[in-house]
Amino acid sequence: MNELFFLPDLRGIGATLPWTALMLLAAVLAGEAVQRWLRLPRLLGWSAVGALLGPHVLGLLDRGALDAMLPLLDLALGVVLFELGQRVDPGWLRRNPWLLGTSVLESALAFAAMCAVLLALGAPPLVAAAAAAIGISTAPAVTLTLVRDLRAQGQVTERLLMLSALNTVYAVVAVGVLLSWLAREHAHDWQAAVLHPLYLIFGSLAAATAFAAATLGLLRLLGRRHDAQFFCILALVAAAVWAADALKLSMALTLLGYGVAIRILDRERLFVALSFGRVGGILLILLFAVTAARIDLGVLATGAVAGGVLVAARVAGKALGVFALAPASGLPLRKASLLALALTPMSAVALVLLHDTTRLYPQLGPSLAAIVISAVAILELLGPLLAQFALVRAGETAEPEA
Fold it and tell me: Is residue 152 part of a domain?
């Protein structure tokens, strides 16, 4: 026996280091440094650390480690989508139908512009349509994080949150319809082509309503105690994420619908305004860091041109839709320009929709992934910067906390 058997074996220590915890610590430090010294959004530091530690740069977190974190990633995205759904006020859309018209128009024009430019570049019609459908969505995690960090309140902020929720729904529905088209084109399966989008959309909404009803039933027993409601909601959001995956529903539509349904059905005001606080903060940091780590930088060489063109067409389409109905919806043109900039971010939801599409139809994988991942990589940097600029210039932010 070695006389120094009690000392650690440093040769294998690298394989057993808790890289997830170290990534979280590094991301927190990077986020604070970026915000304090560069006056940039913290989430840029979180994403930078994830990309640096991921398998495509330093490789300290390999693909297996990232795959093991997927349930936590899904929970983080579920919390974000639920909270965003809570902020959707259906009454506002009834009082101002032009706002709903704005969301439909900016999403439709963005889809049309993205699809047209990709077709002009020679992309196959199915790939162009799939990339354009995915590109409709605005990153809900980015918008919520910026609004929270900047303590933003006002007309541009509230419209940004509303439009982010609505165009995420449109993206899910568009991808669902596209999947039915793919079923008809590739499998000649008319039954799947009709039933799959119906199951995806109405099944997700039914699950959301069921979870909302169950939540309100539990809240009648718990009362309005904040701590009890916090743990109850967090557990039910986790259950809703699991149910959406197990039932092959849309996680984004289920969790957004869950948040909206509670707001609509809660006529007794049982649900208190919840902040996910430090737990939510940890989940958000991991969401940005792990999402950045999972972006395959190797596809940028093949998809950079198409991804850049997609970004430009997306920005132009959304801006045109916002400007077109701004006067009718009661938004001055200056603030309309800032709202169009704030809609730029695209991140985690786009990657989830990309994964869902390529999982069902892997033949689209290489070309579709090259375009979407290139666009997401570009907007991981530009999106938060433009959105923060817009909110600050709109005069709706407080000074960030030191």
Answer: yes
140 belongs to a structural domain: yes
Number of domains in the chain: 1
> Which residue, 247, 209, 216, 248, is CA-closest to 232?
216
Q: Can you tell me the distance from the alpha carbon of 374 to that of 300, in angstroms, rounded to the nearest whole number?
A: 5
Query: In angstroms, rounded to a whole number, what is the distance separating the alpha carbons of residues 133 and 110?
Result: 9
pTM for this prediction: 0.88
- 131, 314 Cβ separation under 8 angstroms: no
CATH of the domain at 126: 1.20.1530.20
Count of all residues that appear for the chain in the document: 402
For 6-20, the pLDDT digits (tens) are 555 544 444 445 777
The C-alpha atoms of residue 376 and residue 378 are separated, in whole angstroms, by 5
Q: How far apart are CA 227 and CA 242, in angstroms?
A: 23
- Torsion angle in degrees (nearest 10) through CA of 241, 242, 248, 251: 10
- Torsions phi, psi of 223, nearest 5? 80, -165
pLDDT digits (tens, 9 = 90+) for 375-394: 998 898 899 999 999 999 99
What residues make up the domain containing 211? 99-276+296-393
3-state SS record for the chain: CCCCCCCCCHHHHHHHCCHHHHHHHHHHHHHHHHHHHHCCCHHHHHHHHHHHHCCCCCCCCCHHHHHHCHHHHHHHHHHHHHHHHHCCCHHHHHHCHHHHHHHHHHHHHHHHHHHHHHHHCCCCHHHHHHHHHHHCCCCHHHHHHHHHHHCCCCHHHHHHHHHHHHHHHHHHHHHHHHHHHHHHHHHCCHHHHHHHHHHHHHHHHHHHHHHHHHHHHHHHHHCCCHHHHHHHHHHHHHHHHHHHHHCCCCHHHHHHHHHHHHHHHCCCCCCCCCCCHHHHHHHHHHHHHHHHHHCCHHHHHHHHHHHHHHHHHHHHHHHHHHHHHHHHHCCCHHHHHHHHHHCCCCCHHHHHHHHHHHHHCHHHHHHHHHHHHHHHHHHHHHHHHHHHHHHHHCCCCCCCCC
Query: 44 is written with which tokens?
Result: 């840029």
> Each residue of 52-79: pLDDT tens digit?
988 888 887 778 778 888 888 889 899 9
Residue 280 CA to residue 76 CA, distance in Å, equals 8
